[in-house]
Amino acid sequence: MTTRELIASIRRKQSFLCVGLDVDLNRIPLHLLEEEDPIFAFNKAIIDATHDLAVAYKPNIAFYEAYGVKGWEALRKTMNYLNAHHPGIFTIADAKRGDIGNTSSMYARAFFEDLGFDSVTVAPYMGRDSVEPFLAFKDRHTILLALTSNSGAFDFQTRKLEGRELYKEVLETSKKWNNSSNLMYVVGATKAEYLEDIRRIIPDSFLLVPGVGAQGGSLEEVCKYGMTPDVGLLVNSARAIIYASKDRDFAAQARKAAGELQQQMEHILNR
Amino acid sequence: MTTRELIASIRRKQSFLCVGLDVDLNRIPLHLLEEEDPIFAFNKAIIDATHDLAVAYKPNIAFYEAYGVKGWEALRKTMNYLNAHHPGIFTIADAKRGDIGNTSSMYARAFFEDLGFDSVTVAPYMGRDSVEPFLAFKDRHTILLALTSNSGAFDFQTRKLEGRELYKEVLETSKKWNNSSNLMYVVGATKAEYLEDIRRIIPDSFLLVPGVGAQGGSLEEVCKYGMTPDVGLLVNSARAIIYASKDRDFAAQARKAAGELQQQMEHILNR
Question: Exactly one of B96, B168, B224, B246 is catalytic; which is it?
């Protein structure tokens, strides 16, 4: 999907909501455990209930790998379902990968070609040649970790690398990489006050913003400092939506939680 | 596996060789493609031919994910084979994972519990709470990226964070994390001259050293600066061993290549 198509989808749906599909079998409704593929059954129900409210879905790959081959099969079925029934929805493999060049190429093939994702999250620690193999894919997006939502972000990311915070050096340096127009960045909602500085370095890039809701970040703050004329934001919510209820009404409750966020977003977009 | 058992295995085999199982279907002998599971067939042949010469095997997970469910199945079969037939061999999931706490826990379960690896490689960018879920597993090891073998290592790792190179800050900071005795570190052989400084910060920790062979690193240099009284090194070689031949004699040629490295290691250990 091109960035232009993503922006059009945001305008049409009046939403920049990304729903995190982080499926934990201990947290889904009990009756789904009787299904042949509980993870896919859960995802399908969530997608069916929220696809008009969300512009993106983001499975965190850890939750699938934890279930081995079955998890991987559920991930593939989820992607096939999304790409067949909702090709206009942006898909994010939250994988936080990154390795030496020929190995990153294998990861890029896995997520872009084999599974058909529009984008994948990548860690910057190994530098340019670990990221460029992802950037080489046309109309696919590489979402680089910049400033994450967790407390460990303060261990290295916010400390000064040669006079400037590491996460800013990541932003600045990555702009010089080949096909850097395919870059987006992860910036946690719990660190919204940093967004003003971030927008000075990358005024137009899309940001994937986790941490609204369960982790405590504020949608208002994120939009105040992070929004661009083309919106430039994908705000992720996972637990607050997909685990809104553990009962048979879980999909309806997920829709309700997603709808509340979408309404807030529509309000902000029309201000 | 405990560190003590790993050291005993190194002494017994007179080897600190790790064989990288980075299986690319375009590079394995053609006749194996007729097998039901070519990746596992290849790994089994390599393991059968080299298990007395190597103390560790390291599948790079990217190469398995690139083949989707089939790749994941081949990885599981490989791990089952290793754990059933060679329980004394140390296994490394070269995954370079790392995410917020509850997600890192899922990755840790995937590699330690579901697949039965002794260790997993983890990226440090997200800091303490992204790594400690891995460290919580007793007698399992977390191999933190410190100074990698690729050119991109110079983008951030070797630059100064508050006066000291980022990779040194990673080493120093990680020593304070819970269960840090379960830490090992990745240090590329292509940067052997940095090992003297590294040993001042972590005098005893085991280092996983990629980059000998195809990437140009020198075994002699690595040992000169990196070896400890308990050896403290696992030197990885992948392509030079597993792709020593693309013909029917590939396993014998892999054994020959592994044997040459083991002989050099035995020589160094007895100097």
Answer: B96
- Write the Ramachandran bin of B243: left for phi over 0, alpha for psi from -120 to 50, otherwise beta: alpha
Structural domains of chain B sorted by starting position, each given as residue range(s) with its CATH number in brackets:
3-269 (3.20.20.70)
Residues 113-172 of chain A with CB under 8 A from chain B are: 114-115, 123-131, 145, 148-157, 159-162, 166, 169-170
Average pLDDT over residues A43-72: 97
- Whether B20 contacts B46, CB under 8 Å: no
Nearest CA in chain B to A169: B156
ipTM over 0.85: yes
pLDDT higher than 80, residue B140: yes
Rg for chain B, CA atoms, rounded? 18
A226, pLDDT greater than 90: yes
A94 three-class SS: strand
DSSP assignment, residue A248? Answer: T
Q: What is the mean pLDDT of chain A?
A: 96
> In what side-by-side order are the strands of the sheet with A164-165?
A164-165, A160-161, B160-161, B164-165
The burial of A43, by beta-carbon neighbours within 10 Å (0-12 exposed, 13-18 middle, 19 or more buried), is given as buried
